[in-house]
Design goal:
seven-stranded mixed beta sheet; alpha/beta; disordered N terminus; transferase; methyltransferase activity
C-alpha cells in the first residue's frame, strides 16, 4: 500500500513539474539598494508619478541590477529609468543612455534629453551615446555591459521611422556588448498571440512568442519571465495610446541571459 501511495505521489509531482516550469516568475522583493534608489527624494515628480504603472522596484529586482553594474538603457526617452539606474549602480557603476541614431531627428530631440541627464546632480555616471541600431560594437565595448534594458520600445525597432533597421543585427550587437552571464531585459506591450509583427506600428504591440524567438536566435537563453505588469483584461486589439487602455496595457517582462560559455 505504501508503495502504491508513493508511486501516485511521484506521478502527481511529475505531472505538475512541467506546469511549474512554464509559469511566469512573480515579483521578487527588491534589495535595500533598489528600494533606496526608487525612494530617492531627488527624483523628478514627472518620474515618480509613473511609478504606479511602471513598478520600478519589482522590475529592477527582476533584472538583477546591483551597485557597481554597467547598464545600457536603450531608448531612454525622458530618462526615467536612466536616473534610477544611475542612483542604484552608484559611483562605481555606469549607465549608457543609448539613443538609436535613427530617432535623433525627432522633434523631441531624444539625444539632447539623454545628454542633459549627466548634468543633473548625482547622475554624473550617465553617458549619452548614439549610433545606428544595427551597428556592431567596437572592440572596447565587447563584454562590457552587465544589463541591457529596453522598456516598451522593442516593437519600435520595426517602425517605419527606423528606416528598415536590422533587428536581428541589433540583438546580435546587444549579445556582443554584454558580459558572459549578463542580462537582456525586454518589457513591451503584448499583441494578440500569433500576430507576430503585424501590429508593431499601428497598435504599438508585439507578439511575445516572436520576441522570444528573435532574441534566442541571437544566442540568448530565456532566463525568466515576470507577470508583474500583466493586465488580463487588456484588449490586445486596441492601440496602446487609446484612452481606454493607456497606462493599463498588458505588458510582458522577459529576462534573457548571455551564456557564460
Amino acid at each position: 500500500m505504501k508503495t502504491v501511495l508513493f508511486l501516485k505521489s511521484a506521478l502527481a509531482t511529475l505531472a505538475v513539474a512541467p506546469l511549474l516550469l512554464s509559469m511566469p516568475a512573480q515579483a521578487q522583493a527588491p534589495s535595500p539598494a533598489v528600494a533606496a534608489a526608487v525612494a530617492d527624494k531627488t527624483r523628478p515628480e514627472k518620474d515618480t508619478q509613473q511609478d504606479a504603472i511602471r513598478r520600478p522596484a519589482e522590475l529592477i529586482a527582476f533584472a538583477n541590477i546591483k551597485p557597481g553594474d554597467v547598464v545600457m538603457d536603450v531608448w531612454p526617452g525622458g530618462g526615467y529609468w536612466s536616473r534610477v539606474f544611475s542612483t542604484l549602480v552608484g559611483p562605481k557603476g555606469k549607465v549608457y543612455a543609448y539613443v538609436p541614431a535613427e530617432i535623433t531627428g525627432f522633434k523631441s530631440d531624444p539625444l539632447a534629453l539623454a545628454k542633459a541627464i549627466p548634468a543633473e546632480p548625482g547622475h554624473g555616471n550617465v553617458e549619452a551615446i548614439s549610433y545606428p541600431a544595427a551597428e556592431q560594437p567596437q572592440s572596447d565595448m565587447f563584454n562590457k555591459v552587465d544589463v541591457v534594458w529596453t522598456f516598451e520600445n522593442y516593437h519600435d525597432l520595426y517602425d517605419s521611422f527606423m528606416k528598415g533597421a536590422d533587428v536581428n543585427a541589433f540583438n546580435q550587437a546587444v549579445f556582443k556588448r554584454l558580459k558572459p552571464g549578463g542580462y537582456y531585459i525586454i518589457v513591451d506591450h503584448a499583441a494578440v498571440a500569433g500576430t507576430g509583427l503585424k501590429h508593431t506600428e499601428d497598435l504599438h504591440r508585439i507578439d511575445l512568442a516572436t520576441v522570444k524567438a528573435e532574441v534566442q536566435k541571437a544566442g540568448f537563453v530565456l532566463d525568466g519571465e515576470s507577470s508583474v505588469l500583466a493586465i488580463p483584461g487588456d484588449d490586445h486589439l486596441l492601440k496602446v495610446f487609446d484612452p481606454a487602455v493607456r497606462g493599463k496595457t498588458d505588458r510582458f517582462v522577459l529576462r534573457f541571459k548571455k551564456p557564460s560559455r
